[in-house]
Automatic annotation (TrEMBL):
<dbReference type="InterPro" id="IPR011005">
    <property type="entry name" value="Dihydropteroate_synth-like_sf"/>
</dbReference>
<keyword id="KW-0460">Magnesium</keyword>
<dbReference type="Pfam" id="PF00809">
    <property type="entry name" value="Pterin_bind"/>
</dbReference>
<comment type="pathway">
    <text>Cofactor biosynthesis; tetrahydrofolate biosynthesis; 7,8-dihydrofolate from 2-amino-4-hydroxy-6-hydroxymethyl-7,8-dihydropteridine diphosphate and 4-aminobenzoate: step 1/2.</text>
</comment>
<dbReference type="InterPro" id="IPR000489">
    <property type="entry name" value="Pterin-binding_dom"/>
</dbReference>
<dbReference type="InterPro" id="IPR006390">
    <property type="entry name" value="DHP_synth_dom"/>
</dbReference>
<comment type="similarity">
    <text>Belongs to the DHPS family.</text>
</comment>
<keyword id="KW-0479">Metal-binding</keyword>
<keyword id="KW-0808">Transferase</keyword>
<dbReference type="InterPro" id="IPR045031">
    <property type="entry name" value="DHP_synth-like"/>
</dbReference>
<keyword id="KW-0289">Folate biosynthesis</keyword>
<comment type="function">
    <text>Catalyzes the condensation of para-aminobenzoate (pABA) with 6-hydroxymethyl-7,8-dihydropterin diphosphate (DHPt-PP) to form 7,8-dihydropteroate (H2Pte), the immediate precursor of folate derivatives.</text>
</comment>
<protein>
    <recommendedName>
        <fullName>Dihydropteroate synthase</fullName>
        <ecNumber>2.5.1.15</ecNumber>
    </recommendedName>
</protein>
<dbReference type="GO" id="GO:0046656">
    <property type="term" value="P:folic acid biosynthetic process"/>
</dbReference>
<feature type="domain" description="Pterin-binding">
    <location>
        <begin position="19"/>
        <end position="272"/>
    </location>
</feature>
<dbReference type="GO" id="GO:0046872">
    <property type="term" value="F:metal ion binding"/>
</dbReference>
<dbReference type="GO" id="GO:0004156">
    <property type="term" value="F:dihydropteroate synthase activity"/>
</dbReference>
Length: 289
């Protein structure tokens, strides 16, 4: 099987020979993690710059809250939030930028403004999203979510969560490949916390190697999530930094190639220790062959 050590982000190659850090930059007014402090482009750039200095390899810009139960934001509002920030980041920072969106209009405008990665928590299920992503030159992270942010935590049920999530992601990757997207533009993400109970999240995390074996780079986002709060006995979000860093290192040990995190410095330390002392993870593979 041919091996791709890089992710093609609109012609800019991100090496995946070691796990990479995606720093989260929320530009929503209601984000649970930052309280919407980064709505102004200058504040957003300052925060992103600090994340890059702490070791972030990608900055993920999100303008729509995906909080469980949240209402969708009209695309015009999402554009108003993210485009000025992407434009400012593009001019200020050397790293690839990611756009966290499910809307085809936002994907196209964000890519035109310099985003090199489309991060869709809805797995490209919105009408037009698959085509918008495929038509771009950007890398695409396809995430699994059961239902919609509004409905996803209503009694999630699976017969076999690992099989269902891997099956969904494999099908989405095939759909992209069928539209001409090469394997080195595709990333898969099991979507921790999106329509999953703690038990489902644990089964997915412990089964990450199975998702990795599909042959695409895997992204893991567990930073500050309630599954970590639950493991620590209902620990509030401010007390989840250490758990998030440990989980990032464990994910890397299972073969994840990108970790999406809020606390970049702690994650960088955890990944450095994993790399020095943890089990060796082989090169990432493409889905080719
Ligand atoms: C409220 C609830 C606000 C949940 C934010 C969140 C992921 C993501 C998010 C992920 C990928 C968060 C989530 N999570 N994109 N976007 N993977 N690819 O905790 O796990 O940041 S939003």
């Amino acid at each position: 099987m041919p091996v791709s050590l890089t992710l093609d982000c609109s012609g800019r190659r991100l090496r995946l020979d070691r796990p990479r850090i995606m720093g989260v930059l929320n530009v929503t007014p209601d984000s649970f993690s930052d309280g919407g402090r980064f709505l102004e482009p200058e504040a957003a750039v300052a925060h992103a710059r600090a994340m890059v200095e702490a070791g972030a390899d990608i900055i993920d810009v999100g303008g729509e809250s995906t909080r469980p139960g949240s209402e969708p934001v009209p695309f015009e509002e999402e554009l108003r939030r993210v485009i000025p920030v992407l434009t400012a980041l593009r001019a200020a920072l050397p790293v690839p930028l990611s756009i966290d969106t499910s809307k085809p209009e936002v994907m196209r405008a964000a890519v035109a403004a310099g985003a090199g990665l489309i991060n869709d928590v809805n797995g490209l299920r919105a009408p037009g999203a698959l085509a918008a992503a495929a038509d771009s030159a950007a890398a695409i992270c396809v995430m699994h979510m059961r239902g919609t942010p509004r409905s996803m935590q209503r009694e999630p049920r699976y017969d076999d969560v690992l099989r269902e999530v891997c099956g969904f992601l494999a099908e989405r990757a095939s759909a992209l490949r069928g539209l001409g997207v090469p394997a080195d533009r595709i990333v898969l993400d099991p979507g921790f916390g999106f329509g999953k109970t703690l038990e489902h999240n644990v089964a997915l995390f412990r089964g990450l190697a199975e998702l990795v074996s599909l042959g695409y780079p895997v992204l893991v986002g567990v930073s500050r999530k309630s599954m970590l709060g639950a493991i620590l006995g209902d620990r509030p979000v401010e007390g989840r930094v250490t758990a998030s860093a440990v989980a990032a290192a464990l994910a890397a040990g299972y073969g994840a190639r990108i970790v999406r995190v809020h606390d970049v410095a702690a994650t960088a330390d955890a990944l450095a220790v994993q790399r020095a002392l943890g089990r060796t993870v082989g090169p990432p593979t493409t889905g080719e062959g």
